[in-house]
Amino acid sequence: MTTLVRNAWYVAAWSSEVDDQLRRFTILGDAVLLYRRGDGHVVALEDRCPHRQLPLSMGKRIGDAVQCGYHGLTFGPDGKCTRVPGQDKIPPSAYVEAYRVVEKNDIIWIWMGEAHRADPDTIFDLPQFHEPGWHAHQGDALFLKSNYLNVAENLVDPAHVSFVHPTTLGNSASENVPVHVSTDGPAITAWRWIRDAEPIGFFKAFGGFEGNVDRWHYYHLYAPSIAVIDFGSAETAAGIAEEDRDSGNRIFALHFMTPVSETETIDRWMHLRNTAIETEEASERIDAMFRVAFGEDKEILEAVHAEEQRPAKRRPIRLAIDRGPMVYRKRITEMLERERTEDVSAEPNGAFVYHD
């Protein structure tokens, strides 16, 4: 049974990854052709000619249309076939699927599910993208040999940071600090504050802290596959309250996880920061530190995924720190169930009388 939710907005690519060339991406197990029309708008088509199945990405541009490289069938940006060389009649089945795409915040979003359910107003956004005093910087597209569920669960789990990232994003000071979890809103949130402790390696290098700090980690996970990590530090002497995090050195690390298949995931990560906003040197330094930390995650997650493929002798255990991941799995199951069935129970039916 699939774990891939289709009725959701996914990040297909950074805006910088798509130009006028025909480029092939794999999303939810489907090959997708992305390119820009002459007016700059992004086109997303099924990357497979319906005639002999050759990828259209191996063809060529004819204006804003794409010509198959095998027999010349030509498809417009809407997926409809406009030409079949050698015959006048175009069969009704000569088309490729066209996917809804929206470009926002220099990110290309794609909807792979039922087209009538695609609502651009539900695409993820953060106020800090649009507020002065914040700098947005896109990082890498990290490939992981892991199901996206494990990748997402890792991003609502503050407890792993002390052990997986001891020199970058965590240290021993947080090992026994309780994790708080809230599952009431659209996001599953796990967080904790570490007061009057040594700064982590990230903020020693980037924030310039030398004495003890108060630091925080807020992990927000939006099903199916978007995570926002709000973390930062402030000098302990400042005694900042939880709602005053903007007065400290604050960073949002964003993770957009796009399932390539049931066994592979692309994690496109970026950050927004409220310090050193005028210099790209800071961006490069932060990228370097993140690459170390996310490389540590990659090693762990790929090892977990490989082990999950082996026969299990007993059931895995779950701990108190797994509250967030368990709720996340439940939400994914509910999303998949809604896609597997069609709810017509609201339609009037004289055979039933409802009292609730």
TrEMBL record:
CDD domains: RHO_alpha_C_DMO-like (cd08878)
Pfam family, one: VanA_C
Gene3D superfamilies hit by this protein: Naphthalene 1,2-dioxygenase Alpha Subunit, Chain A, domain 1, Rieske [2Fe-2S] iron-sulphur domain
Keyword list, A-Z: 2Fe-2S, Dioxygenase, Iron, Iron-sulfur, Metal-binding, Oxidoreductase
Sample GO molecular function, one term: 2 iron, 2 sulfur cluster binding
Domain of life: Bacteria
Residue ranges of domain Rieske in the record: 9-110
PANTHER family, A to Z: 3-KETOSTEROID-9-ALPHA-MONOOXYGENASE, OXYGENASE COMPONENT, IRON-SULFUR DOMAIN CONTAINING PROTEIN
Protein name: Aromatic ring-hydroxylating dioxygenase subunit alpha
Organism the protein comes from: Mangrovicoccus algicola
